[in-house]
Amino acid sequence: MSSLSQNPKKTLLFSAMKNPNTLKKKLASRFLKAMKKLKYKMSPSPPASIAEKKRRHRAVRAAAYASMASAVGPRRAWSRALLRKMKGRKRARRNPGNMNTRFGLNHLCDIVPGGEAMDSCSLLNETAHYIKCLVAQVQIMREILHSSSSSSTIL
Amino acid sequence: MEPNVKAVQPQFRSGISGPKPGGMGFVFDDIHGLIPGPPETDGTSFTALLELPPPQAVELLVMEDFPAKSMPPPIFPSNIALSDRASMFSIFASADNPPDSTNIISASSSMKIDSVKQEPLESEHHRNSSSPAVSNQSLKSIKRKEREKKVKESSKKSKKLEANEASDGSGEQLPYVHVRARRGQATDSHSLAERARREKINARMKLLQDLVPGCNKISGTAMVLDEIINHVQALQRQVEFLSMRLAAVNPRIDFNLDALLAAESESSIDNSYLGMFPPSIWLEGQLNGSRQQQSWLIDGVHPSRVDDTSNFITPDNSLLSYDSPPNSVSLHSSQLKMEL
């Protein structure tokens, strides 16, 4: 009986979300495009001031999250929330009486984007998908770094 | 058996047209006469009905002149009895509850849309009988279908459906879907719904446990939740640091898609520790300078929990450690020893 309740979620996970490979490729292409765009804005030499470094860092991070959210699309609540944040719109905090039913998911809803306006069940769903996408994004960024730094050997 | 059946049949129509307790009592005696006859109808009335393919079963319910000769299956007499019993129950239900009959009728419209098999049968019945008989038969068939559904639904939870049906046959109404709770649990609709929700949430927690490494051994949802939160925060911190490195390296990178994707597909171990030293060395100064500003670089996306940077040496990012410089250097050297 528990398998009956689990299987819908598993099929949901595997059908609604892509395989790791296709997800990763999609994320990678979007992220690389975003980084190309960013690159033209940056000055070619390493920036002198710390403020400049901070600005660049924030831009790259925003590009990472934005590309992740747009690759996933508006299908997921967390990606919708992220896109809303990027565009600067209002929070859309529709709260169907969530605080009563939370059972200790308070920290989680702070961390996962768009976590407040969801009930516990869908919050856990979104967390699972968010973790998957985060892992893929981190792998992509690492691989970019490694390939670029290995190609340009500074030893 | 057949004369009994034929005597019973006119009772169908009268039962539907209006509630007649006397008539129903008579019919009820007929049922009791019918019940001992077939041996396998003890508690398996509907399951036996269900064994038959639906068109045949509906025909059984509906047939006017009961041609026993034309029916192929050898267990036909018992099935007649079963079908009559079923139709008796349907009469009881529809006679007792006028609002329920409206439910049946509304369900009948939906059933007609759903069941393709029923349509040719109903066309047959049209040419055979008059309209009240048609509504009668459709009602019976729909009631049988509802019974089947109820059987299936309740059998999901427990095995007590036969007793339920028998008690219903004794004259009580059968309007709603009876969902049976498991043994020793409350049967409120509220608590049932809550229990369903809790099961759902537990199922999702299990899946999350599979997703987060190292969560399988932990028992207790609070600790698992903590682990999940830690994992998500660690991932977000990794994104932070990687973006910082990328921002530093960015002007030199040519984001040539094909070359980069090809490079990604290579095995990354020797790349990784070759690439580890140079960026760490010339980024160290930047990292030291920027670590003080880390806390307010992290804005909006997640709350600042930068104090536990030692947490960063998790197994999944042992390749890239952004700890204090001596630690990172020692890690690199240990990793070199590992590789060699």
Automatic annotation (TrEMBL), chain A:
Source organism of this protein record: Salvia divinorum
InterPro entries in UniProt: HLH_DNA-bd_sf, IBH1-like, IBH1_N
GO cellular component terms listed in the entry, alphabetical order: nucleus
Iron-sulfur is among the record's keywords: no
The name this protein goes by in its record: Transcription factor IBH1-like
Keyword terms of this UniProt record: Nucleus, Transcription, Transcription regulation
Domain of life: Eukaryota
IBH1-like N-terminal domain mapped to chain residues: 21-88
Transmembrane region(s): none
Location(s) in or outside the cell: Nucleus
Pfam families to which the protein is assigned, alphabetical: IBH1_N
The UniProt record lists the keyword Transcription: yes
UniProtKB/TrEMBL annotation, chain B:
Subcellular location: Nucleus
All residue ranges annotated as the BHLH domain in the record: 185-235
Alphabetized CDD domains for the sequence: bHLH_AtBPE_like
UniProt superkingdom: Eukaryota
InterPro entries, A to Z: bHLH_dom, bHLH_ZIP_TF, HLH_DNA-bd_sf
UniProt-annotated stretches for the region Disordered: 115-176
Gene Ontology process terms (BP): regulation of DNA-templated transcription
Keyword Nucleus: yes
Keyword Nucleus among record annotations: yes
Any one Pfam family match given in the protein's UniProt record, by short name: HLH
Bias (Basic and acidic residues) ranges: 115-127, 148-163
This protein's GO CC annotations: nucleus
Keywords of the record: Nucleus, Transcription, Transcription regulation
Name this polypeptide is given: Transcription factor bHLH48-like isoform X2
Organism this protein belongs to: Salvia divinorum
